[in-house]
Amino acid sequence: MLGSRFFWKLYASYAVLVVLAVSVVGVLTSRRVGQDLLESVERSLSNRATLLAEVAVPALAGVGGDRLQDRVEQLGRDTRTRYTVIRLDGTVIADSEENPSGMDDHGSRPEVLDARQEGRGVSTRFSRTVAASMMYVAVAVRRDGRELGFVRAALPLTAVRQRTAAVQENVLLGGLLAALIALAIGLFVTRRITAPLASMTVAAEAISRGDYQHRVRGGSNDEIGTLASAFNRMAVQLERRMETITEDRSKLLTILGGMVEGVVAVDRDQAIVHLNAAAGRILGVSPERSLGRPIWEVTRVRQVSEAIAHTLTEAGEVTEEVALEVSNQERIVQLHGARLDNGGGGHVGAVLVLHDVTELRRLERVRRDFVANVSHELKTPITAIRGLVDTIIDDQEMPLTVRTDFLRKAQNQAVRLSLLVTDLLTLARLESADGIVEPERLDAREVVGRSVANFRPAAEARHLTLDVDMPQEPVPVLGDPEALELLVNNLLDNAVKYTGEGGQVNVRLASAEGMAWLEVADDGVGISPEHHDRIFERFYRVDQARSRELGGTGLGLSIVKHICKAHHGTISVRSTLGVGSTFEVVLPLA
Length: 590
Ligand code: ADP
Fold this sequence. Notes:
Elements: H1 5-61, H2 68-79, E1 82-87, E2 92-95, H3 110-118, E3 120-127, E4 132-143, E5 146-156, H4 158-208, H5 223-258, E6 262-267, E7 272-275, H6 277-283, H7 287-290, H8 295-298, H9 302-313, E8 317-326, E9 329-341, E10 347-356, H10 358-394, H11 400-431, E11 440-443, H12 444-461, E12 465-469, E13 476-479, H13 481-497, E14 504-512, E15 515-522, H14 544-549, H15 556-566, E16 570-576, E17 580-588
Parallel strand pairs: 12-14
Antiparallel strand pairs: 1-2, 1-5, 3-4, 4-5, 6-7, 6-10, 8-9, 9-10, 11-13, 14-15, 15-17, 16-17
The protein binds adenosine-5'-diphosphate.
C-alpha cells in the first residue's frame, strides 16, 4: 500500500496543506505578536512621556525646575527608560543618561518633528549614543494652549526583539509539533482511505486472473464501504455468470463431442476455434493439435478449406456432398457451412458441419441393387411361365407329351418362384426387429438331427455319404428353433447341391470355450478365395447358371448370416476350388 501512487498523492496533498497552514498561521502569529509588543512598548513610552511632561512644565516654561535633571535621572533609573526633555528650540535641558549640555540640537529628530506637528511622534532607529536600536516616543508639552517643548521617552528594542524571537520560537515549535501530529493523523487517515482501495485492486487482479471467489473486506459505512460492497456484489454476479458460462460451455463441448457429425468452427481468418472428435475422425486430424491453426494448414482436404472460404466470403451458406480421400479411404461427406453472425450484421467466423454419409449411400446402393435383383429374379420365372402357358394355349394341336413337358417346366418355374418368395419373406422377417421370436433354451443336437434327417433322402438320391458327429451330452443354446433349423438346412442344402455324385458331406457339432461349434464340410466343387467374402451377400452366386439349374435362389447364405447375427454368433468359410468347402458356425452356449 505504501507503494501505491494514490496513497502518496493523497498524503502529499494533505502534507502540503498541513505545512502551508501551519506556516501561514506561524508567520501571521509571530508577526502579530511582534507588532503587539512594539505597540505596547510605544503605548507605555507614550504614557511615561506624558507623565514626565507634567513634571517638566515649570522648567520648560522657565519658571523653576532646577532639579529637573536629577528627577529625570532618578525616573530613568526607576523605569529603565531613557528620558529627554527638549526645549521648543531643540535644546536638551535634561536627559536621564547624558549630560544635556553636551547634547546637540534635538529639534530635528523625526519624533520631535512629528510631535511638533501632531502632538506626538514615534521613531525607531539606531542610536549611536547607546549603540542599540531604540524606540523613541516624543510628546509635545503644552500649558494653557501654548507649546513649551517636548518630552521624549526611549527604550532599546533589544528586549522586544528577544521576546519576539522567543515567541517566534514557541510558535515554530508549536507549529512543528502540530504539523507532526497532523501528519501522523494524516498518515492514519490516508491509510484508512487507501487500504480498501488497495484491497480492491488486489481483488480485481485476482478476479482478472480467474479467482472469482476473491472478496474485499469492507465494513465502513462511508462511500468506500459502499464501493467495497458493490464490488463484492459484482464479484458474486461475475462468479455466477462465469459458472453459468463454464457450465454452458462444458454442456456445449459434451454435445459437440458426442455428435456423430463433425463440427469445425473457424474465426474470420480461417483459424480453427473448435474441431470436435467426429470432425477429427472424418478429416483424419487431431482436434487438440488443430486449435488456432488455419484450416488449410490442418487438413489437406481441399474441398473442406474451399467450403469454409466460400462460406466466409460468399453468401454465407454452403451445402454440398463431396467425396474425400482420407487415409486412403474414400468417404462421402455432406458439407454444410454457415456464417457465425456477430449480431450486428457482420460475422465472426464460420462453422462447417461434416456429415459422413458413406454408409448411408452404401445402404442406398445396396437397397437399389436389391430391388433391381429381386425384380430380375422374379421376372425370369414369370416370363418363363407366361411363355409356356401362352404356347400351350395357342397351340391346340400340341401333342400330349409335349404339353405335359411344358406344364412340368411351368410347374418347376412356379416352384422356383415360390422358393424365391419364401426366401425373400424369410430375409425380410429376419431383417425386421421381430425376426426372431422369443429365444428359448434348446439342445443344438436336436436341431442338427432334425435337419440331417430332412436331407438324408436327397443325399442318398445323389449317392452322397452324410456323416454326423455329435457329442454325448447336450449342447444348450438360446435361440429360435425354426430359425436355427433353417440355418442348418441351408448349409446342408448347399453342401448336397454343390457336391458331385458319390461325394462326402460331414456334419460336426461340438461345444468348447463356452461356444457351440457347427461345421458342415463337403468335398464338392469348392469356392475360389475371391468369392469367400461375397457369397454371403444377397443374390451373389459364384456360378449363376449352376445355381439356377440347382434351384438356388442366391439368398441361402445371406439368410444363414442373418440368423447367425440374430443369435450373436458368427459364420465363416474355408474352401478350395475343386477340393471342397467347410462352413463353420459359432454360437454362444446358453
Ligand atoms: P444359392 O441359392 O445359389 O445356393 P447361396 O446364398 O446359398 O445361394 O450361396 C451363394 C453361392 O455360394 C452359391 O451360388 C454357390 O456358388 C456358393 N456356395 C454356397 N455353398 C457352397 C458349397 N457348399 N460349395 C460350393 N459353393 C457353394
